[in-house]
């Protein structure tokens, strides 16, 4: 029987030399693999009161929309700077090879709403940390963070756990 990890393709030297890219589009393209992934990501949260799912740019949108649908909740995107049309708040963060800024609509989350954060991959945790800070600034209460892949050597899980976040991952890959 296949696992979620079996559906993920590894691509050498993308986007830079020395990087082993974990491509989840092959998982998304397979109906059984995609359903398995969504079911496993939402399972720990089924039956919990969750008001909204926040998906981190960009593959988190695919996952977040599907999970929000299954849970019967709303979906909120955290996007790269300049991509949202309304009034936003922003948060900068460091990447492995630079800096970036993400934004959320300033009215996307009401104080006290219970939020599940989702994305495809947890590496250094910078994007997730920025998204968490945005949610917290709006008064959201984060019930957990769910990812398909963790790259443990990059320390993202430890970073989020040091922020008192519950972190769930479906599989791990060694290396970058």
Quick overview:
The protein contains 5 helices and 9 strands, in the order ββααβαββββαβαβ. With 176 residues, it is α/β, with parallel strands linked by helices.
Word description of this protein:
The protein has 176 residues and is an alpha/beta fold. It has one domain: Rossmann fold (3-Layer(aba) Sandwich), CATH 3.40.50.2020. Helices cover 28% and strands 35% of the residues. It is built from five helices and nine strands, in the order E-E-H-H-E-H-E-E-E-E-H-E-H-E. The protein has a seven-stranded mixed beta sheet with strand order 5-6-4-3-7-8-9, sandwiched between helices. A two-stranded antiparallel ribbon has the order 1-2. Helix 2 packs across helix 3. The radius of gyration is 15 Å and the shape is globular. The model has no long low-confidence stretch (mean pLDDT 96).
Throw out a few tags for this protein.
176 residues; 7-stranded mixed β-sheet; 5 helices; two-stranded antiparallel ribbon; single chain; alpha/beta; Rossmann fold
């Amino acid at each position: 029987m296949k696992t979620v990890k079996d559906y993920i393709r590894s691509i050498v030297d993308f986007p830079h030399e020395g990087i082993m890219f974990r491509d989840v589009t092959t998982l998304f393209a397979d109906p059984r693999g995609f359903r398995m992934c969504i079911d496993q990501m939402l399972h720990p949260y089924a039956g919990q009161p969750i008001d909204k799912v926040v998906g981190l740019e960009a593959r988190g949108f695919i996952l977040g929309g599907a999970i929000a649908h299954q849970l019967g909740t709303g979906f909120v995107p955290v996007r790269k700077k300049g991509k949202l049309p309304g009034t936003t708040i922003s948060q900068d963060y460091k990447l492995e090879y630079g800096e970036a800024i993400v934004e959320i609509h300033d009215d996307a989350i009401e104080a006290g709403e219970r939020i599940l954060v989702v994305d495809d991959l947890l590496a250094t945790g910078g994007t997730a940390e920025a998204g968490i800070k945005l949610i917290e600034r709006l008064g959201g209460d984060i019930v957990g963070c769910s990812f398909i892949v963790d790259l443990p050597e990059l320390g993202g899980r430890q970073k989020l756990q040091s922020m008192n976040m519950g972190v769930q991952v479906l599989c791990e890959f060694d290396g970058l």
